[in-house]
Amino acid sequence: AAWRAQHRIAATSSWQRLLSRPGVTCLIWLVVAISLALPGALLLTLDSVHRLTMDFDRGVQLSVMLETEATLADVEAIQGAITAWPEIDSVTFLHRDAALSQFAEQTQLSSVLSSLNRNPLPHTLLVAPVMPMPQQTFEGLVAKLADLSGVGRVVANTRWMVRLEQVLQAGWRWAWALGIAMVCGAILVLVNTLYLDVDARKEEIRVVSLIGGSPAFVRRPFLYSGLYFGAGGGVLATIGLWAFTAWVAGPVNALFLLYDQPNPLLGPSATYPIAMVSLGATGGWLAALFATQRYITRLNTH
Question: What is the mean pLDDT of the chain?
Fold first, then answer.
């Protein structure tokens, strides 16, 4: 009961001390909030783009162009063989006449194509592999299709997807590196602030130590102050992240519609507020622990 009462008194006194200095408290909360909100916004943006690229993977398609001399019987034989492969999801046959009609419709060259003596396009198999698939396995599948008898060419325009994936991976690492650097900077600011707070109350700490107060008793109110500083910054960071999401929702949703993705940009899930408040509170607590331990060590030395 005494231990709980001491914690209650320390928590209450620390909170009242923060409220007695609203200007300083708000500035520290803003520093912590900016340090958490900026990397959080980058991670949220990358998460939304990654959700879009997952649909790109499901839309990967290979165009297996057969040789010009291939008959319908050859097409059926090749289609049946490819369909049985475990890495193939579906195979669709595109007749050369249908391919020519689609090409004429898309290019508005019907008059030119009608003057040709014969159809220059071959029969084509549209192959949809099972996704997601590692890039090395995908390249092996393309080579395996190209080696089939009767296949003239395999078209796989997926290099842009590989580049996009590499850009996203670089973006994730950059966001994490920036986040770690900014959180460390916020912790250093909190350490300096709390150390100055400890130094301003050095006479009180000496009196408590002289009458038998333990180091844990001395640290307790400062630990609660650090906890409040970090948690308050996490709450402000969450509010800022919601405001950022509402601000960029319009352009991002327009981008999604251009890629036939009607799913709107969602706000940060429950993971983001929990992570920001927890990270801020933990950083503030560690900063207070470091600041008070350093001062108590100096006090014991003297």
Answer: 79
Report yes or no: 220 and 6 within 8 Å, Cβ to Cβ: yes
The tens digit of pLDDT for each residue in 71-100 reads: 788 888 888 888 888 888 888 888 777 766
pLDDT digits (tens, 9 = 90+) for 125-138: 888 887 767 777 77
Name the pTM for this structure: 0.63
